[in-house]
């Protein structure tokens, strides 16, 4: 299947039907026609899932959760434990409660119940995004000193 977003023409990731099925609004569920979907990774594009063979397109408004990299003000960084970027910054920078990535995982319960296949729009584990958020929060401390 071609994996080029029909709107922004950028190459997307592949996600399995189970991820799309879990996250699209309920009335779309029974209309899903494909076993695999493209996931648009462009932050400025409003399309989330697409399949060019079946001409299916799902926009951000058709998905139950906000997609973290699509221009969110306070993106979710772990969908399983519902941890947001603000939560991470709060713990690391404001409260200075956390020094290591492991402490962040322990305290927030992030990645404890790995349900990423059905909770995270990318269908992948939140670890990478959570690490990015942690490193970003650390960088905020450095610049304050
Ligand atoms: Zn796109």
What this model shows, in words?
- The chain has 145 residues and is of the alpha+beta class.
- It has 2 domains: 13-62, N-terminal domain of TfIIb (Single Sheet); 76-144, Arc Repressor Mutant, subunit A (Orthogonal Bundle), CATH 1.10.10.
- It has helices spanning 17-23, 26-29, 85-94, 101-108, 116-119, 127-144; strands at 13-16, 36-39, 47-51, 56-59, 76-78, 83-84.
- It has a 4-stranded antiparallel sheet.
- Strand 2 and strand 3 (47-51) form a beta hairpin.
- Helix 3 (85-94) runs parallel beside helix 6 (127-144).
- The structure holds zinc ion (ZN).
Write out key terms for the chains shown.
145 residues, alpha+beta, N-terminal domain of TfIIb, Arc Repressor Mutant, subunit A, 2 domains, two-stranded antiparallel ribbon, 6 strands, 15% strand, binds zinc ion, CopZ zinc binding domain-containing protein, BFD-like_2Fe2S-bd_dom_sf
């Amino acid at each position: 299947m071609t994996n080029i977003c029909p709107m922004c023409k950028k190459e997307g990731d592949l996600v399995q039907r189970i991820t799309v099925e879990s996250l699209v609004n309920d009335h779309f569920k029974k209309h899903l026609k494909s076993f695999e979907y493209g996931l648009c990774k462009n932050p400025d594009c409003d399309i989330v899932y697409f399949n060019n063979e079946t001409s299916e397109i799902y926009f951000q408004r058709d998905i139950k959760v906000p997609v973290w990299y699509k221009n969110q003000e306070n993106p979710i960084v772990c969908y399983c434990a519902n941890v947001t970027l603000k939560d991470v910054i709060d713990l690391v920078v404001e409260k200075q409660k956390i020094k290591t990535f492991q402490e962040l995982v322990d305290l927030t319960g992030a990645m404890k119940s790995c349900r990423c296949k059905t909770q995270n729009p990318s269908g992948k584990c939140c670890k990478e995004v959570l690490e990015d958020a942690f490193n970003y929060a650390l960088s905020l401390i450095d610049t304050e000193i």
